[in-house]
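Design job #97: recover the sequence.
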């Protein structure tokens, strides 16, 4: 019986281009910050 592997974490910085790397890194930080802020708002409303 073969096990199915589910990839949870992926590398989005594979290009090797430093400028593109910085741009993608910044985008991912912005996404993370927005997600944290969104979760904070949801937690505050739930109280």
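Job complete. Output follows.
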């Amino acid at each position: 019986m073969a096990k199915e592997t589910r990839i949870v974490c992926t590398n989005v910085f594979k290009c090797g281009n430093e400028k593109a790397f910085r741009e993608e890194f910044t985008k991912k930080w912005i996404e993370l910050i927005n997600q944290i802020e969104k979760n904070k708002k949801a937690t505050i409303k739930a109280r």
